[in-house]
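Question:
Now give any protein.
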Amino acid sequence: MKVPPLNNLIIERFKESAHLQTAFAEKNSEQIIQAVRLLAAALKAGNKIMLFGNGGSAADAQHIAAEFVNRLYKTERERPPLAALALTTDTSVLTSIGNDRDFSHVFSRQIRALGKKGDIAWGISTSGNSPNMIAAIKTARSMEVTTLGCTGKGGGEMGTLVDYHLTVESPDVTRIQEVHITLAHIICELVEQELSL
């Protein structure tokens, strides 16, 4: 098999990502607006956003939690912090639950401890089929915590369970993750605008 020149491969990968991101935005702009309004309303009412995922999606969860708590863009006017936390960052909690119970409970146990009606549980998963993601969404729903899911092609079981679902129509994990982080940045920016911050 002939390997393409490196510069061609680089350009092709950027084109793939740009094409998928544009197609996703065109198909899902109304659902994105719904998600923004959902998150803004929850934050305005004094509730919080709990973000979670595995692997690269875990990194996205903590990245976006930081954008909400601190800020997305530096502006002339300082904005107040927004209540968001990643359920992926406390290694003692994660390893305790994983060791004493089962890894499938690492997020649901935290939601049960920290969540309340009116909060948002925002799960990020490329497959939508991870047992710990599904358990977390089911727990959130049982507590009347509103659920938002970002998934990859098909959405998996998680896509059928969440209240609000944004799915990237691609089987390529890396491209899905690129759309997810861009989406999350846009959501954060629009939430700030919605709250006039």
The first helix runs from residue 6 to 44. Strands lie at 49-53, 84-86, 120-124, 146-151, 164-167.
